[in-house]
Design a protein that fits this description.
With 259 residues, the protein is an alpha/beta fold. It folds into two domains: 6-199, 2-enoyl-CoA Hydratase, Chain A, domain 1, CATH 3.90.226.10; 203-249, Lyase 2-enoyl-coa Hydratase, Chain  A, domain 2 (Orthogonal Bundle), CATH 1.10.12. The chain contains eleven helices and ten strands. The strands form two sheets. The protein has a six-stranded mixed beta sheet, with helices on both faces. Helix 5 packs across helix 6 and helix 9 runs antiparallel to helix 10 (221-235).
Length: 259
């Protein structure tokens, strides 16, 4: 599929999704529809085993297009919010690890998008992250009140959401919004290296880890244990499990095939 606002390619089992909507990679309805299609495409490609999401230029994403917010009616904007929530849920549901490679500013819906990814790597420098929606008299509505409080705790989430303040990479890393920080210019190479390591791993097991963690958040403990057992039973019947055990006993690196 061809895209107006995204570039997709694959390299060494890693899928790359790059946002390209100048000047700040903001999302309107058309761009958000394309995001959903792009996520479905990388999810369906069997050769893609890990995904790196990035933004072209000096901004990862500034979130929702401010002109759309100004000139659209409530029904239109609520349809947009509904689509945003569904597409970010698609990212979480992918049985593949998705890494947000953040270079430059990542604010509002841009950070909401990054929070739906499994890992966030950020470049040090002038780039800031934050959720300034309250300054517009609205909230961050793409699932972020839930995701952010799970990630950094209730009080910190409330502080960031009501203050709208922006943070540099060091502070974002310190409070747990981003997982790793790197010098400017190294972010993509570091994300690619990590993604290639994931792509060489036992993909069924990686997908099960993601499934258990994401779904267990809404379960009672006993139900979470049941989910773990179900995943374990399925994994014990895979070729990757047999290969992992054999390789361990033979003292060699396993060659997982995702089967």
């Amino acid at each position: 599929m061809s895209y107006k606002f995204f570039h997709l390619h694959e390299e060494d089992s890693v899928g790359f999704v790059e946002i390209d909507r100048p000047p700040v990679n903001a999302f309107n309805l058309e761009a958000m529809k394309e995001l959903g299609a792009a996520i479905e495409e990388v999810g369906s490609e069997k050769g893609i085993k890990a995904v790196v999401l990035s933004g072209k230029g000096k901004t990862f994403s500034a979130g929702a297009d401010i002109n759309m917010l100004q000139y659209s009616d409530v029904d239109y904007l609520m349809g947009f919010v509904d689509l945003c929530q569904k597409n970010l849920a698609k990212i979480e549901a992918l049985p593949k690890i998705v890494i947000a490679a953040i270079e430059g500013h990542c604010v509002g819906g841009g950070l909401e998008l990054a929070l739906a990814c499994d890992l966030r790597f950020m470049a040090q420098g002038d780039g800031k992250v934050g959720l300034p929606e309250l300054r517009l008299g609205i909230i961050a509505p793409w699932g972020t009140t839930y995701r952010l409080s799970k990630l950094i705790g209730k009080s910190r989430a409330i502080d960031l959401l009501i203050s709208g303040r922006l943070m540099d990479a060091e502070e974002a890393h310190k409070i747990g919004i981003v997982d790793r920080i790197f010098p400017s210019g190294e972010i993509m190479s570091q994300a690619i290296e990590y993604a290639k390591g994931v792509a060489s791993g036992a993909l069924s097991a990686i997908g099960s880890v993601k499934k258990c963690i994401n779904e267990a958040a809404d379960m009672e403990f006993q139900h979470a244990l049941k989910l773990e057992k179900e995943c374990m039973e399925r994994l014990l019947q895979t070729g990757d499990f047999k290969e992992g055990v054999t390789a361990f006993l033979e003292k060699r690196t396993p060659e997982f095939k995702g089967e």
